[in-house]
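Box 3.1 A note on notation
Throughout this textbook, protein chains are presented in two layers. The first layer is the amino acid sequence; the second is a token string describing backbone geometry. Keep the layers aligned when reading.
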Amino acid sequence: MLRPSLAALAGALTVFGYAPFGVALLPIGTLALLFLLWRDASTPRDAAWLGFAFGAGLFGAGISWIAIALERFGGMPAPLAILGIAGFCAYLALWPALAGYAVARMAPAGSAARLVAAIGAWTLAEWLRGFVLSGFPWLAVGHAELPGSSLAALAPLGGVFLVSLAVAAVAALVAFAVDALARSAWRAVASALAAIVALFVAGVALETVEWTAPHAAPVAVSLVQGNIPQEEKFDPELRGRAFRVYAELVASSKGRIVVLPESAFPVFASDVPRDTIEALAATMIPRDGDVLVGLFVARPPEAGETQPRIHNSVVSLGASPTQLYRKRHLVPFGETIPAKPLVGWVIERLLAIPLSDQTPGPVDQPPFAVAGERLSMNICYEDAFGDELAGWSRDATMLVNVTNDAWYGRSIAAWQHNQIAAMRAKETGRPMLRATNTGVTSVIDHDGAVRVQLPWFRRGVLETSVTGRTGQTPFMRFGNAIAVLAATLVAVLAWVLGRRRQGGDRR
């Protein structure tokens, strides 16, 4: 049990590599330990168990905040909430388990080829986790490299998974160096260290490349943080306060682009008071600007349907023609119920999450055209899916994320989410505007640096100016293809090296 326990501890410690802790190089050390354990695993089953233990530690420590949404705000009994999050973490841990199994199948125990295999298998497992069954790419190790590590410079080339590949490569080199040091193989140690330095120096060189160019003069932007408690947000008796709070904050703002959080108005568009709409428009029109409001839109049922179609949406009000964005990538069991005929009745009885059966919006929604800019809208955890967001944003000059991480209380979730948003800015070479209910409300520059943010859990308006960007990064053109191809080639190389090693042993 010592080795699985060590793997689980390494997985849990990896969480400190992400925001808000930000020890960017820590995942390199913890992955190096996992790779050494994989290298010495006697069977594929043993390697899979080590991967599962690492994943259980990583996700158990890193996303346990989901239980807050289930129990505190979703009304699920605490034992069931704990059981639910444990099951979800176990599912996510299957991906590093699969990686471990593949590593042990590709190369013999004790070989350097296994360390090479670990680079490709880890990266491919992260990529698969990011889209299978709707996907959950949270805590990809590449995200931890922003800010502080030059490895993040690979993001505009191949996205977060190419950064993950680089992290895994450095981890494998560290593992190789540790093993060589134990054998007093000084030349091997020096070669590994030189390769590590070369990877970081390459990142420094890539940081000097400007993949996109300024679009126009800076535009004044106001990001509004209403700080309305989650337990009160959907209370029908308190909705009037939300209308009043946001109308007053918009009136006090200065920007031509004013962004309100996700579901700032937690009602259907048809239920927003006319005087509120008129007040918002009257504020923005003289500025030649627009306010972006998060709310819900209901459409009549289509043929054969009995219920209206509900969309988590953003609408623009002001000088430009009214524009509507409908969320495309929904949260399973939070905004949509997979396999509803089988499990829908259970979910609806266990969870009291409002509007939990929504409809995704169409894929081909154009950017908002406001204040001379083109804004690529995304809602909540849509910004976790880099290849999707990159495809949606080719014609945009800025990214805008509206979210409500108040579902997760004062946990680390909001800081992890802000770090993920920073990676999207880095990948696309475009600034990201983030308006949230309770934080983290921030402006992220096109290089992934968080320039300014509002204090957490405090009402206010973030006032700044932002320059839009045009042009396409390689990642915007090719998505995850570069990272997946590179990881696959590494895996194939490991398999070839492993076969040669086995052939040599037989002779």
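The mean pLDDT is 92. The first helix runs from residue 2 to 14.
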